[in-house]
Structures are given as structure tokens and as C-alpha cells.
Amino acid sequence: MLHIDIRRNPAPKAKPEDETKLGFGKYYTDHMFIMDYEEGTGWHDARIVPFENFSMTPAALVYHYGMCIFEGMKAYRRPDGAVQLFRPDENASRMKRSAERMCMPPFPEEYFLEAVQTLVALDADWVPSEPGTTLYIRPTLICNHDDLSMHALDRFMFFIILSPVGSYYTGGLQPVRIKVEEEASRCVRGGTGFAKCGGNYAGSFQATQQAAREGYSQVLWLDGATKQYVEEVGSNNIMFKIGGKIVTPALGDTVLPGITRKSSIEMLKGWGYEVEERLLPVAELMEHIEAENVEEVFGVGTAAIITPVGTLGFGGKDYEFNGGKIGETTQRLYDELVGLQFGQRPDPYGWTVRIGE
Length: 357
Ligand SMILES: *Cc1c(COP(=O)(O)O)cnc(C)c1O
What we know:
Elements: E1 5-6, E2 31-38, E3 42-50, E4 68-70, E5 73-77, E6 83-86, H1 88-101, H2 109-122, E7 134-143, E8 155-165, E9 176-180, H3 198-202, H4 205-213, E10 218-222, E11 230-233, E12 236-242, E13 245-249, H5 259-270, E14 275-278, H6 282-290, E15 294-301, E16 305-314, E17 317-320, H7 328-341, E18 352-354
Parallel strand pairs: 1-3, 9-10, 9-16, 13-14
Antiparallel strand pairs: 2-3, 2-8, 4-7, 5-6, 5-7, 6-18, 7-8, 10-11, 11-12, 12-13, 12-15, 15-16, 16-17
Helix pairs in contact: 1-2
Bound molecules: pyridoxal-5'-phosphate.
């Protein structure tokens, strides 16, 4: 058991009044969780304190060398008013793998679950209840050591902040336009693509901004080495329904192992779909598009759950699928996943975890 020292916020904030206008990452709750690490001492001083600014040396390595990893997960309000998490053990173990890649001390998985449970329970009033709204949970691990030489990495801080967020789809699921990125790369083989680290995001803004200027909402990333294989879409994993089968890029060190991806594959297989996890050449994809074999395209990730893709821009030309409408498998997956996450449907998988359990 982790001993968590709790200092309650003496001046709790007013909650956002209109839960239909929460947006993403605009509001933060009254408390945050923090725990420190020092070489020799290990993890210590677990505490929940009022949400406030940090005081940190400007020489902290997080500011210079991108020593930062994070997780993204949500707490969902059930119809009976209780609050629940979705596969939090998966976030705990992924964060451990990200830490190992970045030479950071892994945050113990049992601490992770306890910290999330305790913090969300304390700020449970902040979990919104408008349809589709959630409490976004952002566990983060940074290096706050001030040795710019990087000879030793001795001091780290783990923290969790919470943000009530709006529904991505206030008017129902909406298909988006994405652009195949033929120049920039998100990551490379042997790099940090599979780790949820800040640097992967920093390096992808330029291409994303350019795509936005061209009228696309996300980029479809190809592999960094050859630019021949499909990898991810924005910060989501990608799936295609081609001739009735589901095809998704296999995990390797360049694809982020998404929990929504994993859950979708398990669900789809349970419904009898054949799911191929493999290398998907963009040339093969374009052939299938030309032959009108591509029935559905969708992104999968915690933030939007399922993002239907209606249009793919490639080589300056736009290709539409399914008449720009949402496919039946996309819709079913969205309905079932969201229903399960919000406790509106039974959970035969054992994926949901109630707060306070
Ligand atoms: C977080 C993330 C995903 C989605 O992972 P989930 O666990 O499903 O939220 C996909 N790709 C990238 C690059 C990510 O950072």
C-alpha cells in the first residue's frame, strides 16, 4: 500500500458551468498527485496537493532534452452515478515500457493504479455527466535533474493532473479528412515511436499544421525509413476495412501500442471479423481504394475513441470512402466501446474498474 499524504485545496474552484462547452484541456481540477524519485532513495513522498504551479530549476532536463513521458486515460460517469476507469492496468504497464526506453525509472504499476484511484476519488465531483463528456487523466513522468551534461539521471517527478473534457462529437460521429504525409516522419525504426514521449509530439506539429492549412484534420504517417508503409493517423492508431476484413499496421517499435487499438481488435475478433495485423503498403492501399475495396477507414485512440475517416488526401488528390459516410463497423465499434466505457452496457471483458473498488 502506498501512503499518500493529502493536503486538501482550501479554495476549491467553481466547476465549469456548461458541460457542453468543456473543450479539451481547458479546465483542471482542484488537486494533483505528485511523487518524487531520487537515485538511491527510490520513489518517495507520494502526495496529493492543490493544483498549482511547480517551482523547478530552469536547468531541469525536461526543459532541454525532452525527458518527458506521459499517459492519457479517462474516468467515465456511469448511468448510476458511479465513476469508472477503462483498462488502467494497460496504461500503467505502457508507461513502464515508455520509461525504460527513455532511461527513466519506471513508476511502479501498483502505485500507478492506487494514485489514479485516490486522486479521481477525491476530485470525483469533477467527472462531468453530459453525454460523451469525461474526466481526462494525464499521468506524466519528467526528469527534473539539473545536470545538463546528462552524465547522470538522478532526479525525477511523477505527477497526475485531471481535466474535465467535452465530447468530440457533439453532433454525432463526424468523418474527417486526412492527408498522407509523404515527407515528414513521426519516428524511425530504432527510435522512440512506441514510447509515449513528449518528443514524438514536438516533432510532429509541423506536418500537422501544414495539413491543417491544406484543410485536413490529421496526417496519416508512413514509416520513416522507406515511406512505403502505413503506420498511424495523428495520435491515433489506424484501421481499414478492406473486402470485409479489418487490416491494421502491426506493432513494432514505430507504432504506439494503443489501448483502444488492442480493445478494438479483441472486440472485432469476438464479433467474428478477421483482423490482420501486418505491414500495409500505401501502394496496396491505393490499389484497393482505386478498386473500391476499401469500405471503411477509422482512427482509434482514447481521446476521440473512434475517428471515422471520410477522405484521404494522397499526392495532391482526394479519395473518398463509403460516400464520405460512416461505415457500419466503425459505428458499431464506437457504440459498443463507448457504451462499455460509460457503463451503459455490460462489460463481459472485465475491462472496467470502478473508482473506490
Ligand atoms: C496515445 C497514442 C495513441 C492511442 O493510444 P490509446 O491508448 O488508444 O489512447 C496512438 N498513437 C499515438 C502516437 C499516441 O500517442
